[in-house]
Amino acid sequence: MNILEKSELIKNQELTARENVERFSEIIDQKNPQINAFLEINKEQAQKKALEIDHRLKEGEKVGKLAGLVIGIKSNINVEDFTISAASPTLENYLGSYDATVVKRIKEEDGIIMGMTNMDEFAAGSSTESSYYGPTNNPAAPGLIPGGSSGGSAAAIAAGMCDLTLGSDTGGSIRNPASHCGVMGFKPTYGAVSRQGLLDLAMSLDQIGPFADDASGIALMLESIAGWDPQECTSMEWEVPSFSNLVGEDGKETLKGMKLGIVKQFQEVTDKPIVKIIEKSIDQMQEMGAEVVELSFDYIDLCLPTYYLINYVEFFSATRKYDGRKYGSKIEEVCGDEVLRRIHMGSYISQKEFSGKYYKKALQARSLIRKEITRLLKDVDLLVGPTVPKLPHKVGDTLEPLEMYAYDVLTVMANLAGIPAGSLKAGEVKGVPVGLQMQGKPLEDAKIIQAMDAFENINK
């Protein structure tokens, strides 16, 4: 059953919230020691919330959209009374003193927060190997990385440890692990979901979004957390669609007449076995009535350097609050190599004599990339292609920074342009999941979710 069907079972009291929590508690006990997806869980609190929901249902009281569903939260999103460490020794003793806006909304909809998931330290990574608490293993391809930086959230879904999770996506940190773990991940339009309560990596790029095993889970979570937040400066006032009413339709009807843009450069930078899977997926959608339009994007080589220059500067700025005075440790004294590298690079580029040479040029390049992405999307509904250009490496393998950054080449564009993007499983290469990425126009998040749902339905 999908998430919407499970939600209805709970609301109809055919499955109790308590039973749902207990089942996931058992799975976490069994699997988490090997996978390391969850860094902290609170079964007692989850069980208490479940009993409260069951009582309200029994009394005929109204409950929220997420009632009884078990949820994991990435460890850089504030949840009151949980450790919000960002997987770093800098904040290993920092207890959340408030709920992020997305967490408030989950609680208002009666979602049950089970615990905090693993991640790359301060979200600076693409493999979840830089976590202070050790790497996360990939449940779909044991021994390989789950992707990052939201690897724990993706792995928790892939291992069946909870119903839904939240991650953050700055340059692909939701879509990358969704691809490697064979689950669904969604980065909303920039500003569609409040960032209030998220520990910054790069504030002009960061966006919170959901993971699930199916499109109905993505839809249900997104409609629960999206919408304007007066406390958050990047938040947009927009009419949030009822995403969950748009899924479960006939895939053939959804895709009929939909124009899919296929960018040749996306295929050219991707390993051939992955391209083969993606081409087969596109053929399937064509058979369902979608129209394929071939496109060209000449600025793909500009995307990674533009993204990382902006990332370095904004991350350096964001980390100045971790000075060890009010809470935590001074970040430079305890952090890992990649975090320190980004701080040093950001500090260097931020200096007056270098700002014009690097950062301002990166902002100009970003404007150009955004303009070109807008042009690509002008006459199509979606851009469709690979999520990640290569398969995940083995946990513990040593990669040079540029090799690690190469995982992000196809995902950073959506963050630079502020557009919505999702990833879902397209197939496997030698047993390793491969993700299909769909990108759309700003605030056309619903169109991506409908297409993801349609693709899921034709591949059941």
SSE order and pairing:
Elements: H1 3-11, H2 17-35, E1 38-41, H3 43-58, E2 70-74, H4 101-108, E3 112-117, H5 151-158, E4 164-169, H6 175-181, E5 184-187, E6 207-212, H7 215-225, H8 251-255, E7 259-263, H9 264-268, H10 272-287, E8 291-295, H11 300-318, H12 331-334, H13 337-350, H14 352-355, H15 359-377, E9 382-386, H16 401-405, H17 412-417, E10 421-429, E11 432-440, H18 445-458
Parallel strand pairs: 2-3, 2-4, 7-8, 7-9
Antiparallel strand pairs: 1-3, 4-6, 5-6, 5-10, 9-11, 10-11
CATH architecture term: Alpha-Beta Complex
Uncertain segments: none
CATH level-4 homologous superfamily:
Amidase signature (AS) domain
Query: What is the chain-wise order of helices and strands?
Result: HHEHEHEHEHEEHHEHHEHHHHHEHHEEH
Number of strands: 11
**Helical residue percent?**
40-55%
The main pleated sheet reads as: 11 strands, mixed
Radius of gyration: 21 Å
Spatial sequence of strands, sheet with the most strands: 1-3-2-4-6-5-10-11-9-7-8
Query: What fraction strand?
Result: 5-15%
Output the CATH topology. Answer: Amidase signature (AS) enzymes
Identify the CATH class. Alpha Beta
Number of domains: 1
First CA to last CA: what distance? 12 Å
Structural class assignment = alpha/beta
Protein name: Glutamyl-tRNA(Gln) amidotransferase subunit A
EC number: 6.3.5.7
Keywords: ATP-binding, Ligase, Nucleotide-binding, Protein biosynthesis
Catalytic activity: L-glutamyl-tRNA(Gln) + L-glutamine + ATP + H2O = L-glutaminyl-tRNA(Gln) + L-glutamate + ADP + phosphate + H(+)
